[in-house]
Write a structure and sequence with these properties.
Blueprint (H helix, E strand, L loop, with lengths): L1 E9 L8 H14 L16 E3 L9 E10 L5 H11 L4 E9 L2
Antiparallel strand pairs: 1-3, 1-4, 2-3
Amino acid sequence: MYKVNFIFSKQGLMRYISHLDLMRLFTRAMRRADLPLKLSEGFSPHPKFSIKRALKLGLESEHEEAAIVLKFPVETEDFKARLQKQLPEGIKIKDVQGNFN
């Protein structure tokens, strides 16, 4: 199991995106970035992804924490570059840390 923790900011028009839509946005961006996502098991598999806190609609943030589980390790700079390329203006990946245990 390879857990990647990252910090992102949500600014501009992206402050009007709901928490659920933000989760969908990140999931789609990670799939487009061709990251090796670890999926849950069961009838409806989905990526093992979480955002630490749900931010209220209409608020901007400079420091939001999220985590994703990958099938195999990816260099942190590669992860950041690939994911940032797929995200819309207003969402910025600020820091990435891998926990490869």
